[in-house]
Amino acid sequence: MKKFIILVILIIPLLGFSQSLDQKLVKPQKLYVGTPFHVLVDITTTQTDSIFATPVDTLDVFILRDMKSEDILENDTRTTKLDLTFQPFDTGEFTFPKLEFAVVSENDTTFLNTNEFLLNIESVLTDSSDVVMDIADPLKVNLGFWDYFFPILALIIIILAIVFISKVLKNRDAKTEKPVIIDSRPPYQIVLELLKKLNQENLPAKGEFLSFHFRLSYLLRLFIELHYKITAVEMTTSEIRSDLQLDDFKEKSQIIDFLTFADKIKFAKFQPTVDESIKAETWLEEYLKSFKETTIKPDAEKSEDNQEETNA
């Protein structure tokens, strides 16, 4: 009898601190693919126990989306309330597997399990907006005066703007075009005038030999281009020697010597003297003036012929 009483005394404390698990399923009346449902689990343990959830095999049908946990302490017990949110991703009837929790105490580990239950998952609800419906009859729109006026006005404004912009662009292009100046004077007169302006700058006295001989070379090339009708301004001295065809060999030799001397200054960094620069300018001036005689002579002969015809 004494042994029985002692055994009862030892069992009563153990009953007071036993672990327990309660579960509850919260779901809508019908479950569809993607519709969440909740599994509520209450686990009662001592305050010193630890709870661990073991991996859940949900057959890849039920996906755990969220888990909320709350502990309630009362006397020497602790109630852990778990709110597990799952979503189904397949249609048909499936068994939701049991959930297993390990309760670890000081001297032992206890496994608590939920019960399995059946769930029937239906396909996704059909969106009413995707249902094929008859096309409605076209609506009749009554347009008033202003409904026509503003579009026509906008069209007129756009046309006028296009016309105005096109005229502005044409005028701007006309202004940017450089007028073509035709000088009817003989080539030697044109180049002599340019040579006179160069002489007034007195570049040799200022020591600007490179600029001076560069411009002298350009003036001779310009005369050759205007008088002999070859693109001498764009040619090198060697190209002018090849393309310039003259009966007077002495004239061609002097031209090539003049251009070669200028090339030495431009490209070989030759430093001429003031006397050499003046001599080059004088030769170019006399060479240009020599064409004055050949121009006047035919005019004089033509005048004499006209006078003889008048006398006859």
Please provide a written account of the structure.
It contains eight helices and ten strands. Among the domains are: 16-124, Immunoglobulin-like (Sandwich); 187-293, no CATH class. The longest helix has 38 residues, at 274-311. The protein is an alpha+beta fold.
What descriptive keywords fit this protein?
elongated, 8 helices, about 300 residues, alpha+beta, three-stranded mixed sheet, disordered N terminus, 10 strands, Immunoglobulin-like, four-stranded antiparallel sheet, single chain
Topology:
Elements: H1 2-16, E1 20-26, E2 31-32, E3 37-46, E4 50-53, E5 62-74, E6 77-88, E7 92-96, E8 100-104, E9 109-113, E10 117-122, H2 145-176, H3 187-201, H4 203-206, H5 209-228, H6 237-243, H7 249-267, H8 274-311
Helix pairs in contact: 3-5, 3-8, 5-7, 5-8
State the gist of this model:
This protein has 312 residues and is α+β, with helices and mostly antiparallel strands. 48% of the residues lie in helices and 22% in strands.
Strand order of the largest sheet: 1-3-6-5
C-alpha Rg (nearest Å):
57 Å
Shape verdict:
elongated
Largest sheet: 4 strands, antiparallel
CATH topology of the domain at 16-124, anyone?
Immunoglobulin-like
CATH class of the domain at 16-124: Mainly Beta
Distance between the termini: 184 Å
